[in-house]
Amino acid sequence: MTSLLVAASGGHLAQLHRLARRLDAIEEDRVWVTFDGPQSRSLLEGEKVVFVPYVGPRDLRMALRNTWRARKILTEYEPNAVVSTGSAVAMSFLPLARLRGIPTIYVESAARADGPSLTGRLLQRVPGVQRFSQYRMWADDTWRYVGSVFDGFKPVPATAPPVGRPLKIVVTFGLIEGYGFRRLVERLLAILPADAEVLWQVGDTDMTGLTMTACRSLPWLDLTVAMKEADVVVAHTGIGSAIDAMECGKCPVLVPREARHGEHVDDHQRQIAAELAAAGLAIYRSAEELTFGDLRAAMEVRVEELSDPPMIHTLPADRRAA
């Protein structure tokens, strides 16, 4: 039997990749459906992957256009379950899978700390879709709490690197298309030491007039290698960027994008940053408030992974593996 795992690239894919080993509905034989790009190719190397056209945040028109691809994929693989962490690409697959009688599971993104996303609200109207929240505070009879993608991490004290040598810093803004984060670039240029060795991964940020070397995106493997070697990671508050940094042992400095500056569709990144900061897993600052002292504070924390994170039970007890 085959499980179909559907997610947008970036944070949604990072979450599903991390949750896949914990969800009892996912078979060992699995097929991933996502967008093509350096992250997805690196992260899913060696896996069965089908790439579909990019669907932007809240782009329901493109999600509907992708249903013809979904129809072909569902017919070809005949999955026993379809699992998604969003975002809009879930609308291409889950309603169609339910029409075919295929069990479907939607795990709302950990980015949504105060309630379901637009995709989640739309899927509430599709009978039979199992819906799960990663936050106990808004779970109810229609959204079951299953734990969080962050459950497998804990903060521990660390020794900051000695003063006197150039710091290695990774700055990453994720893969979201159409939204830049120049405010954070300019703030970092104002506070970083002149001798710092900085890797800039800036996505769709306009870098006109700036002289440093930056790249739009990096293969996931290259980015994580750089994070492991870095003294500190500074990132927009995307789930994927946060997970990558923590898996590399770093306590990231998270700076939320803000809708009023045209940096995202809403302000959900503030929710993520606040939750991770409360758990001691990140430093949370706005771009205007960020100081070099915040970076030094992040260097004094190391993030470790739990060896045996809890399973997430979505199947009835009589269908779970013994």
Structure commentary:
The chain has 322 residues and is of the alpha/beta class. Helix content is 30%, strand content 19%. Strands 3-2-1-4-5-6-7 form a seven-stranded parallel β-sheet. It has a five-stranded parallel β-sheet with strand order 10-9-11-12-13. A two-stranded antiparallel sheet has the order 8-14. Strand 2 (30-34), helix 2 and strand 3 form a beta-alpha-beta unit. It is globular.
Short recap of the structure:
This protein is of the alpha/beta class. Helix content is 30%, strand content 19%. The chain has 11 helices and 14 strands.
Number of strands: 14
| Stretches with pLDDT under 50, minimum 5 residues | none
Mean of the pLDDT scores?
A: 92
Strand order of the largest sheet: 3-2-1-4-5-6-7
SSE order and pairing:
Elements: E1 3-7, H1 11-19, E2 30-34, H2 38-43, E3 48-51, H3 60-65, H4 67-77, E4 81-86, H5 90-99, E5 104-107, H6 118-123, E6 130-133, E7 144-145, E8 153-157, E9 168-172, H7 182-191, E10 197-201, H8 220-229, E11 232-236, H9 239-247, E12 253-255, H10 268-278, E13 283-284, H11 292-299, E14 301-305
Parallel strand pairs: 1-2, 1-4, 2-3, 4-5, 5-6, 6-7, 9-10, 9-11, 11-12, 12-13
Antiparallel strand pairs: 8-14
Helix pairs in contact: 1-9, 4-5
